[in-house]
Amino acid sequence: MKEQLVEIQKEALAKVAEVETLKELQEIQVAFLGRKGSITTVLRGMGKLSAEERPVIGELANNVREEISGAIQGKQTVLEEAALEEQLQKEAIDVTLPSYPVKFGGPHILTSIIEDIEDLFIGLGFEVREGPEVETDYYNFEALNLPKGHPARDMQDTFYITNELLLRTHTSPVQARTMQAYKGQQPVRMICPGKVYRRDNDDATHSHQFNQIEGLYVDKNVRMSDLKGILTEFAKHMFGQDRDIRLRPSFFPFTEPSVEMDISCKVCNGKGCSVCKGTGWIEILGAGMVHPKVLEMAGYDTKVYSGFAFGMGPDRIAMLKYGIDDIRQFYTNDIRFLKQYHKA
Ligand code: FA5
Hints:
It catalyses: tRNA(Phe) + L-phenylalanine + ATP = L-phenylalanyl-tRNA(Phe) + AMP + diphosphate + H(+). One of its GO terms (molecular function) is catalytic activity, acting on a protein. InterPro entries: aa-tRNA-synth_II, aa-tRNA-synth_II/BPL/LPL, Phe-tRNA-synth_IIc_asu, Phe-tRNA_ligase_II_N, Phe_tRNA_ligase_alpha1_bac, Phenylalanyl-tRNA_Synthase, tRNA-bd_arm. The chain is an alpha+beta fold. Helices cover about 40% and strands about 20% of the residues. The longest helix is centred in the N-terminal third of the chain and has 38 residues, at about 55-90. It is rod-shaped, with a radius of gyration of 42 Å.
């Protein structure tokens, strides 16, 4: 039995020394030290030994077991370290390799146009304000001299949410909100950019969702010539000295008198094309002197205060500035189109 145990130890240590994988090592552990392993099999014959031999063989068997187990553990550490090393080698990253080019995004063309207009008006002493896109009927219409049932409500086909709530059809409700916030006491000089919604059929120049920028100037002695001066300044800044501008008499219930401003079409240079519907002109804004009723509703004394307001469409302005022939290009998110207008 002694020889058998010595032989088992020799054989086990030789196998452990040769083994190359953790799986094989585990098999060796089972084969020699397991419940049905060689040592256990040999020790089953202990019963036949004399009382003196038994502790000697028992001690030897323990030593053999410890030797084999120690060798297995040592080998396991070596194999595990080798496996980890191999994995690290495989996953190694060469930080000196050139990287893939990073694609940079940029502001949407409409964002750039709106920011440009904001900069101009901030320079002229206007503040930038915001208002809600889900608006009340009161601010969108009533506070602007458009009581319920007024036929001019049809000028802007509206998405109603409830009888009293709607998607704002223009940025003009921010006029009423701002004047109320100023409690009819202080001069106002503000612009308000934002999205507006109308049940318009989409075509080259109409979108059901588009942007507007509202402008409002209320103070003592504000006159129509001030409005004309500011709009001319704006048109020159936006389109350069060589574009023609015209003011046409118009009607808005919240301004009196009212005008619309057209710019000569840049796409066809005034000759007539699909963008300007053959007229050579494109309407970019509506404006006028704030109606006395609107000033009064907001608490202003019309003997002291007067004002002008305008509402422009940055989408149409961008189309004119860059010669873009379809407003839908802004909203279909074709990156090949949009990236042409990313500022460096
Ligand atoms: C208004 O919305 C008035 N609130 C403007 C105003 C403000 C007048 C203050 C007086 C005082 P209008 O419906 O004309 O007006 O729209 C103003 C501008 O929005 C138009 O000149 C045009 O540039 C743009 N616009 C109108 N409808 C669309 C549309 N469906 N798609 C794209 N732009 C549009």
